[in-house]
Specification:
Radius of gyration: 22 Å
Strand content: 5-15%
Bound molecules: glutamine
Helix content: 25-40%
Structural class: alpha/beta
Order of helices and strands: HHEHEHEHHEHEEHEHEHHHHEHHHEEH
CATH architecture: Alpha-Beta Complex
CATH topology: Amidase signature (AS) enzymes
Strand order of the largest sheet: 1-3-2-4-6-5-10-11-9-7-8
Largest sheet: 11 strands, mixed
Number of domains: 1
Low-confidence stretches: 156-160, 507-524
CATH superfamily: Amidase signature (AS) domain
Shape: globular
Number of helices: 17
């Protein structure tokens, strides 16, 4: 049952093949068995069982609320959840229990979804590995897959067996691991520079970043307000659309949400792609791109072409400025956002008697890790009166040029862009941490950050397994508020590529973590 898609399990609930409580218990048991992945910071077992019970009652009375009723979901731990600790994987917020739900959380609960828990991340969602939070790194479930296990013996990636486990990517790595390991059917991540698409690519999932303004940010603890969006992680495109359709819409509590988005957002079933024009941005062919991802990308373009679509090379000339531009804007907003964590209002406060200034400083030194403090420092430097024009204003202008590159391409008749999502497949943890977070993010987000600066919809689709048996994903990017169009193309493509289901094995006994329940051998 856990190997099914959201849509399939929803049908099973409706037909009474399983009850919401049984489903919830199966997920809880799998969460326990896969604890070593470190996907969850908090497992909300009591809440989940209560919600499942209420859902069960509704089903019995023929009052079910729709596709999400009784469906186990998980939420990244930077979304506020009423009565459930929300930490952002930071000492600063450890022990903080919000008094309200983020709008997106409330919308899912209003549809009867069952909240399994809060998932692990990089501290305050800063990073692209899910390696930098106070609760430790998240392990990629594919590290323990039969597919990787078999290939790995031929190509060992380290002397020490333990060094073979792979990062999930990030910063929504906990949400990605939770979905990839079948502990829930959908999870929310956040995406400021790629944090939903990047772990989706590394964990073989669909990872969707909606247009900025389509989905409310109220209750998502901000990283970069002008770029943040809630993201969706699922095992197939239709499941993402089911969740998106519930989340999209105006929120009086978020003035950046649009009034009347086009709904429903369920993708159409394309049978003919001959009217489509797919753009391949030439600047995305960077030297750091692994030959394997490049080959998957080029085969995907060939596939569209062979099915009759028009595939053309396009130019996004300001791509090369995107990482540095993101850095200035991100750190500037971080510096301002993090000012609220002063030891007075939220979370941590140091416990020595000292002056107010010293209390601020000590609290923030104890509360934030090096990455967060480093960004606050850079951001405040860029915002200094004497630097403001030279850095912040200049970066805003470059951001506009980057956004205009996309507008020009879409105005020239391109429907969607097809690009890599990440430079390579997931790498072993020990390799990943050889470089600092700043360098890593600067390299890894090359294909994703520009999309956030332009506010566009984009999705990662798992496409193929690398020679090491690990997922490789590709990204579709569409014009602003053409989220449905992006999902429609992605759905057609998903059907063609038939990405294999992960064959998950427990480390200790190599038996199926699903209690030998047979996973569907069909593709997603
Ligand atoms: N890796 C990027 C950063 O560290 C993006 C983070 C995100 O999308 N939350 O800023």
């Amino acid at each position: 049952m856990l190997g099914r898609t959201l849509r399939e399990v929803s049908a099973a609930l409706k037909q009474g093949q399983i009850t919401p409580t049984e489903l919830c218990q199966k997920c809880l048991s799998l969460i326990r068995k896969t604890k070593f992945l470190n996907a969850y910071i908090t497992v909300s077992e009591e809440v989940a069982l209560k919600q499942a019970e209420e859902s069960e009652k509704r089903y019995k009375e023929g009052q079910s609320l729709g596709d999400l009723d009784g469906i186990p979901i998980s939420i990244k731990d930077n979304f506020s959840t009423s009565g459930i600790e929300t930490t952002c994987a930071s000492n600063m917020l450890k022990g903080y229990v919000p008094p309200y739900n983020a709008t997106v959380v409330q919308k899912l609960l209003d549809q009867g979804a069952v909240l399994m828990g809060k998932t692990n991340l990089d501290e305050f969602a800063m990073g692209s590995g899910s390696t930098d939070g106070i609760f430790g790194p998240v392990k990629n479930p594919w590290s323990f897959s039969r597919q990787y296990g078999e290939k790995r013996q031929q190509t060992p990636c380290g002397e020490n067996k333990d060094s073979n486990w792979l990062i999930t990517g990030g910063s929504s790595g906990g949400s990605a691991a939770a979905v990839a390991a079948f502990t829930c059917f959908a999870a929310l991540g956040s995406d400021t520079g790629g944090s939903t698409r990047n772990p989706a690519a590394h964990c073989g999932l669909v990872g969707f970043k909606p247009s900025y303004g389509l989905v409310s940010r109220h209750g998502l603890i901000p990283l970069v307000n002008s770029m943040d969006v809630p993201g969706i992680l699922t095992r197939c495109v239709d499941d993402t659309a089911i969740v998106l359709d519930v989340l999209a819409g105006h929120d009086p509590k978020d003035s950046t949400t649009v009034q009347d988005p086009v709904k429903p957002l369920m993708p159409s079933s394309l049978t003919d792609v001959s009217k489509l024009c797919i753009g391949i941005p030439k600047e995305y062919l960077v030297p750091e791109l692994s030959s394997e991802v490049q080959s998957v990308w080029s085969k995907a373009a060939d596939l569209f072409e062979s099915e009759g679509a028009k595939v053309i090379e396009v130019s996004l000339p300001h791509t090369c400025y995107s990482i540095v531009c993101y850095h200035v804007l991100c750190t500037a907003e971080v510096a301002s956002n993090m000012a609220r964590f002063d030891g007075l209002e939220y979370g941590h406060r140091c416990n020595t008697n000292m002056s107010t200034e010293a209390m601020y400083a000590t609290t923030r030194r104890e509360g934030f890790n090096d990455v967060v403090r480093g960004r606050i420092l850079s951001g405040n430097f860029f915002l200094l009166k004497e630097n403001y024009e030279n850095y912040f204003i200049k970066a805003q202008k470059v951001r506009r040029l980057i956004a205009n590159d996309f507008v020009n391409v879409f105005n020239s008749g391109v429907d969607v862009l097809l690009t890599p999502t990440t430079l390579s497949e997931a790498v072993p943890y020990l390799e990943f941490i050889k470089e600092d977070n700043r360098t890593r993010s600067a390299q890894d987000d090359i294909f994703t950050q520009a999309v956030n600066m332009a506010g566009l919809p984009a999705v990662n689709i798992p496409v193929a397994l690398s020679h090491q048996g690990l997922p490789v994903g590709l990204q579709f990017i569409g014009p602003a508020f053409c989220d449905k169009q992006v999902l429609t193309v992605a759905k057609w493509f998903e059907k063609q590529v038939q990405f294999p289901v992960i064959q998950l094995e427990l480390m200790e006994d190599h038996s199926s973590v699903l209690n030998n329940e047979k996973l569907p051998s069909v593709s997603l």
